[in-house]
Write a structure and sequence with these properties.
The chain is an all-beta fold. Helix content is about 0%, strand content about 50%. A hairpin with a 5-residue loop joins β5 and β6.
Length: about 130
């Protein structure tokens, strides 16, 4: 079983930065993908970013491209989401998720990830 735990959320002013962390444990498999998603009140879950375990490819949602960066420290089983130039519309609960066997056409689909963390709140004030 795979466990994921997010941290690093908080309150920040518009234009500021935050770095989220996701620690994974358990049987993650050799070819898993780690994704970040977010959900704001009253809105659907939104894809934010994803990275293959090998780090060979990264993917970003259109609304965060150029501002957010996903990375990983394989030795620590920890994945990061560096968020810069934050905007009030970035306010949401951020979740990390993992899955195996994902491909380019499925990394943006939350339903393709069977393992989820509990989320961390990010609030951006204007």
């Amino acid at each position: 079983q795979v466990q994921l735990s997010e941290s690093g959320g908080g309150l920040v002013q518009a234009g500021g930065s935050l770095k989220l962390s996701c620690v994974t444990s358990g049987r993650t498999g050799s070819s898993y993908t780690l994704g970040w998603f977010r959900q704001a009140p009253g809105k659907e879950r939104e894809f934010v970013a994803a990275i293959f375990r090998s780090g060979s490819a990264t993917y970003y949602g259109d609304s965060v491209k150029g501002r957010f960066t996903i990375s990983r420290d394989r030795a620590k089983n920890t994945w990061y989401l560096q968020m810069n130039s934050l905007e009030p519309d970035d306010t949401a609960v951020y979740y990390c998720a993992s899955g195996t066997g994902l491909i380019t056409s499925t990394v943006r689909n939350g339903a393709a990830y069977p393992n989820w963390g509990r989320g961390t709140q990010v609030t951006v004030s204007s």
